[in-house]
Amino acid sequence: MVRQERARWWQGPLVGFDLETTGTDPAESRIVTAALVETVGGLPVRTSRWLLDPGVPIPEQARAIHGISDEQARTRGRPAAAAVEEVAAALCALLAEGVPVVAFNAPFDLSLLDAELRRHGRVPLAERLAGRLVAPVLDALVIDRAVDRYRKGSRGLQRVCEVYGVELLDAHEAASDALAAVRVAVALGERYPAQVGELSLTALHEQQVRWYREWAQDFQAWLRKGKDPDAVVDARWPMR
Do residues 17 and 101 lie in contact, with contact meaning Cβ atoms separated by under 8 Å? Predict the structure, then answer.
């Protein structure tokens, strides 16, 4: 009898999640676009996109990144409260089925979505999941930073895609970034089997909690030695 090899998490269903926003503070920024890209083995099988009217002006700096103007958001965007509800419902339905959510810098996207839910009087993510952890989450940035700690240069999505041979066709378009994050995660699983690819989803989620905490502590110490003696880096992952 031929023994079949156990499938790894990176060979199965994953859903990429990305937001484009009005700013960089997850507690205060608003969602402009959102995307969920359902994949199997890194190949997209279903893509869901949302364009929102955030209800506030989109700063020029943000518009220059994602290309969405105030006029586009007002005339073509969905009301924020309704769209945020749809995004959260779709995301939590996949989590409830055990599908891992892949993001690039998860604490930003997940925390911002949760803040928007609370802002609009909607049920937060954890409550939608019956109070359990928002998991499993795979953060391509956290994993890359841990397994290739001393690589110099940018850790932005575009550069990380170059490192792992992932094509990023339309940077800062939510669905494109979400798919790229999935494909980076798949590449990490393939390239680092002992550290990443052969771990169970539970073990890898817990490992990322530790990796992120260690990075935050080191980054905080570095900031305090130099430019900001009072710096505080939030060590919570995948949500704040």
Answer: yes
Q: Positive or negative CA dihedral for 4, 6, 9, 15?
A: positive
Strands 31-40 and 13-21: antiparallel
* Dihedral sign of CA atoms 110, 69, 90, 122 in order: positive
Output the six-digit token pair for 49. 């996109």
- The 10s digit of each residue's pLDDT in 71-91 is 999 999 999 999 999 999 999
Query: Rounded to whole angstroms, how far apart are CA atoms 42 and 14?
Result: 8
The secondary element (H helix, E strand) that includes residue 61 is helix 60-66
Closest by alpha carbon to 197, among 4, 6, 7, 10?
10
Residue 35 has pLDDT above 70, yes or no: yes
For the stretch 143-182, pLDDT in tens is 999 999 999 999 999 999 999 999 998 999 999 999 999 9
Helix (H) or strand (E) holding 31: strand 31-40
